[in-house]
Amino acid sequence: MLFASLIGTTIEFFDFYIYATAAVLVFPKLFFTSADPGTAVLQSLATFALAFIARPVGAAVFGHYGDRIGRKATLVAALLTMGLSTVAIGLLPTYDSIGILAPALLALCRFGQGLGLGGEWGGAVLLATENAPPGKRAWYGMFPQLGAPIGFFLSTGIFLLLTDTLGDEAFFAWGWRIPFVASAALVFVGLWVRLRINETPAFQRAIDQHERVRLPMLQVLRNHPGALVAGTFGALATFVLFYLMTVFALSWGTSKLGYTREQFLLLQLGSVVFFAITIPLSALFADRRGRRLAMILSTVAVIGFGIFFAPLFSTGSAWGTLLFLGLGLGIMGLTYGPLGTILAEMFPTAVRYTGASLAFNLAGILGASFAPWIATQLANRYGLAYVGYYLAAAGALTLIALLMVREGDSG
């Protein structure tokens, strides 16, 4: 069961991150034409943002069926949606072949990725937390969260391998397509695992006790608006931090700091280890001292990191950049470990899939969709320090939201 929750989010985040990497390194050259390379990057980042707009739609659609039909069937459908969209990206013709239709099809596939991930995350978290024994809900809930660093590690690793083995001509001609098409194999593995699991005990109790509602989305909006708002802003800083440390950092590092594509991907690959390590550490702390306290302390760390963002990212040395990336992603793990559990605990079983998914994915719109674009604009106009202030401001909003949340004990 824990492996089923982990393998699905690993595949989903792998698919999601290979797009994020390609949005910086590949798509500006192949899908967008502009005399100014910076403008092409911004156009590419706009399609990156599209998935975050699609994710709440996916949360509403898949959340409805997850709360009505069950976690298992819905997770299978979400994985298929994400997987097929990703493989399609790897088969798309470029701008030189079909003109303006190329970025339009790319945007459509990106929307499909967002739909799938919007339904995947909430179901994976519930698959873990609703099977957790007493006192270990955060520990169980962190397993799907581990899919994020593992997926990022795999996506960055494969792009690094392609960069190392292929020349630029081969990479841009066909090599970039390999991660997208190869994800089909991972999807088949995920489907095989998902089809073998059972329904969660909590959802089975909801069926037995006739607790299911006809329109979970309406119930969330009408009966739990406070939880939805608090959950959305409680996850805001997590999203801003992650996409500054990955997409924005990669773009800035390779365009302004003089790193090659291979050098910066290698630094990111090393730093993601800190992300993976701090997720279980924060989950252990959350089970012992409370999910709310764990999130509050990690959010304070986010604010502090934002204040020192510019000097840490401007050292001029590879070791300094590795420290910057490792520290930022380490703090990311501290916020991400308990996040799924605390969001799930905000909503009752009958609407939990919909509520937790909506909060998580609305936070994605506010905190991640345009974060790389906003950060790029701030850095170009005012300097890196203002990117840090942007992160600190997001952390302050998250801190306020968390202070209004009560520790959950939903079954």
From TrEMBL:
* Localization per record: Cell membrane
Name the membrane topology term: Multi-pass membrane protein
- According to the record, the segments passing through the membrane are 16-35, 41-62, 74-92, 138-162, 174-195, 227-252, 264-286, 293-313, 319-344, 356-375, 387-405
The superkingdom listed in its UniProt entry is Bacteria
**Domain Major facilitator superfamily (MFS) profile residues, every copy:** 1-410
Identify the PROSITE patterns for this entry.
MFS
Q: Which InterPro entries match?
A: MFS, MFS_dom, MFS_trans_sf
Q: What is its main location?
A: membrane
MF annotations from Gene Ontology: transmembrane transporter activity
- CDD domains with a match to the protein in the record: MFS_ShiA_like
Keyword tags: Cell membrane, Membrane, Transmembrane, Transmembrane helix, Transport
Question: Looking at the UniProt record for this protein, which Gene Ontology cellular component terms does it annotate, in alphabetical order?
Answer: plasma membrane
This chain belongs to the protein called: ABC transporter, membrane spanning protein
Source organism of this protein record = Lysobacter capsici AZ78
The upper taxonomy is: Bacteria, Pseudomonadati, Pseudomonadota, Gammaproteobacteria, Lysobacterales
